[in-house]
Specification:
The chain is an alpha+beta fold. It has a single domain, classed as Helix Hairpins (Orthogonal Bundle), CATH 1.10.287. It has helices at residues 8-60, 64-67, 116-199, and strands at residues 78-90, 93-105. Strand 1 and strand 2 (93-105) form a beta hairpin. Helix 1 packs antiparallel against helix 3 (116-199).
């Protein structure tokens, strides 16, 4: 703890600091609550996406055998050409927002390709979209968690260190100034008595 000056100016400075800490603390606590709520919402959304992906994967199981047909469903058939995101903001934290993706579908011969290929391409698109959205949401969660950590540290700093320390400083300065004032009054009375005795 830094040494404080025991003066009226320092008392005013400490009072102003206390007012500032007490004014900002509720805002920081509100931000902390908002970040916690957003993180929970994001985690639930990621879980929903993963559950949906699992359902899509489950619906694929009967088709696994035909996917193994040589040279029909290769990685080149469906590729992600671009991911669309926008910038959002939650509690002052810039976050990416998933807006979709564009795919490149390698042209294939409709007459020679099996009937299931169109459906497989659509289901794979759905799986890719679910994965991409989950990745973007995970990035959101990480950014929000990082900001939550910083905000929690600030709340703790204000609540557990700065406010009690400033209150203690104010009390110390008030006691000192009170003692000084009392001493000045006593000195004044002693001096007055001394002058009265000298006058007699």
């Amino acid at each position: 703890m830094a040494k404080i000056k025991l003066t009226k100016n320092e008392l005013k400075k400490q009072k102003d600091a206390l007012k500032m800490y007490q004014r900002y603390l509720p805002t920081l606590m509100l931000k902390k609550q908002q970040l916690q709520a957003e993180i929970r919402t994001t985690e639930l959304r990621i879980k929903d996406l993963m559950d949906e992906k699992e359902r899509v994967d489950e619906s694929f199981k009967p088709w696994i055998g035909v996917f193994g047909e040589k040279g029909i469903f290769t990685p080149e058939v469906l590729q992600i050409s671009s991911i669309k995101t926008a910038e959002g903001n939650i509690a002052g934290v810039p976050i990416p927002i998933f807006e979709g993706a564009e795919f490149h579908i390698e042209p294939y011969n409709l007459a020679r390709a099996p009937l299931w290929l169109d459906m497989a391409v659509e289901k794979m698109k759905r799986v890719f979209l679910l994965d991409l959205e989950a990745q973007i949401l995970e990035e959101q969660r990480k950014r929000l968690a990082k900001e939550l950590q910083v905000t929690t540290q600030r709340v703790n700093l204000f609540e557990k260190i700065k406010i009690p320390e400033t209150k203690s400083n104010i009390k110390k300065i008030r006691v000192y100034l009170g003692d000084q004032q009392t001493a000045a009054v006593v000195r004044g009375k002693i001096a007055k008595r001394g002058m009265e005795r000298a006058a007699q």
